[in-house]
Every structure is written in C-alpha cells, then in structure tokens.
C-alpha cells in the first residue's frame, strides 16, 4: 500500500472561507489539494480531510457544496482525489469576528490524506462576523475588518491578500468581494454547524 508523501503533496497556505450569492457558492473560494505518493505518483481515491476543529475564528455552514462531505460534529470537510490525485474544495462559512476579540494569530486548518498529515493552512473569511441578522458580506464586516487592522497585532482571519500582515491591501480585497456581491447571502438556509 502506497502512502501519501507530504513533501511532494500540494496544500495551500491559506483557505478562503466564502459565502453564497443566491444559493450559488462564491467561486473565488475554490482551491485544490494534490496528493502524491512516493516516487511522485498521483494518488486517486484518497480521502482528504480539512480539520477545522481548532480554528476558533471560523464557523462552517451546515450545508457544503455537493462535491464535499461535511462532518459538523468534528468540524471537518472531506473530499476524494480524482485520477490525477487532485481534489477541489469550496468551503462555505463565515468568521467569528465580533469586535474587541483579538482572534487567533494563527488559525490552522490541518490537512490529512488517508490519515497522513499533509500540512496546515490558515483560514480567512470575508464575511467577518457571520451576522445572523444579515448573513453574508455586508457593512458590519467592514467595521470588523477595520478593528482588526487597528489592533496592531496580526490576526489571520483578516489577512485576505495573504501577505502576513494587515492593511490597505486586505481592505482592497474585502471591497472587491463586497462590490462583486459574491458572498452576499452567506450560508444556505440551514445555517451554521453547532
């Protein structure tokens, strides 16, 4: 039996957590993971798991795209690699930025392939606060982002341009998401995982 080789697998550094627009998942959140075995062989039929259980700044929607398997109880999303050893994910959810909360400086999603730890990725969510009264990207999310920028310390949940710092570039990414109305309706009607 061949096992995945983490040194030659491809795991993103950041995982964008997005919402929906009229029930359609925001396509800017699409990312792939490539699983290869020793000898650089693509591995098909491998179960890839994204473990969000230690990520306190992100809430997962209780409904995910059909290509994924969701386990709300353990805060995990799973998918199966294709013949090229690739699996695509599009994670629906929102942030937990309620203001005055310094958040996680390094919110890690742990990535596994058939139980082998491939690496970690940081999670960001343009719907900063997952507001129940107005789910999706809206004005109160801008206030949450500005508070994070003003904290003076790094908070991964708002590092939308993925440069390791917070500032105007992150604001530009958020504004593009807001004006593009790509994550305006948040989770489908089923809401968030508990």
Provide structural commentary.
The chain has 194 residues and is an alpha+beta fold. It has one domain (6-180). 13% of the residues lie in helices and 30% in strands. The chain is built from two helices and 14 strands. It has helices at residues 139-150, 168-180; strands at 14-18, 20-21, 24-25, 31-34, 36-37, 41-42, 47-51, 58-60, 69-71, 76-80, 86-89, 91-95, 108-113, 116-125. The strands form four sheets. An eight-stranded mixed β-sheet has the order 8-12-1-14-13-7-10-9, with no helix packed on it. A hairpin with a 3-residue loop joins strand 5 and strand 6.
Overall tally of structural domains: 1
**Estimated radius of gyration:** 16 Å
What coarse outline follows from CA principal-axis ratios?
Answer: globular
Topology order in helix (H) and strand (E) letters? EEEEEEEEEEEEEEHH
Strand percentage: 25-35%
Distance between the termini: 37 Å
Which strand order does the major sheet show?
A: 8-12-1-14-13-7-10-9
Overall mean pLDDT: 87
Q: Total strand count, please?
A: 14
Number of helices: 2
Secondary structure category: alpha+beta
Major beta-sheet overview: 8 strands, mixed
């Amino acid at each position: 039996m061949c096992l995945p080789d983490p040194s030659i697998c491809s795991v993103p550094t950041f995982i964008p957590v997005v919402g929906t627009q009229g029930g359609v998942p925001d396509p800017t959140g699409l990312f792939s993971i490539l699983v290869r075995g020793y000898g650089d062989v693509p591995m098909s039929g491998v179960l890839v798991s994204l473990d969000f259980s230690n990520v306190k700044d992100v809430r997962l929607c209780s409904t995910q795209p059909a290509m994924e398997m969701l386990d709300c109880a353990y805060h995990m999303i799973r998918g199966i690699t294709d013949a090229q050893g690739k699996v695509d994910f599009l994670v629906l959810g929102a942030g937990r930025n309620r203001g005055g909360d310094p958040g996680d400086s390094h919110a890690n999603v742990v990535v596994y392939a058939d139980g082998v730890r491939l690496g970690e990725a940081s999670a960001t969510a343009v719907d900063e606060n997952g507001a129940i009264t107005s789910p999706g990207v809206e004005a109160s999310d801008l206030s949450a982002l500005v508070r994070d920028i003003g904290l003076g310390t790094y908070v991964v949940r708002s590092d939308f341009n993925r440069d390791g710092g917070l500032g105007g570039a992150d604001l530009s990414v958020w504004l593009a998401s807001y004006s593009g109305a790509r994550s305006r309706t948040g989770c489908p009607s089923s809401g968030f995982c508990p």
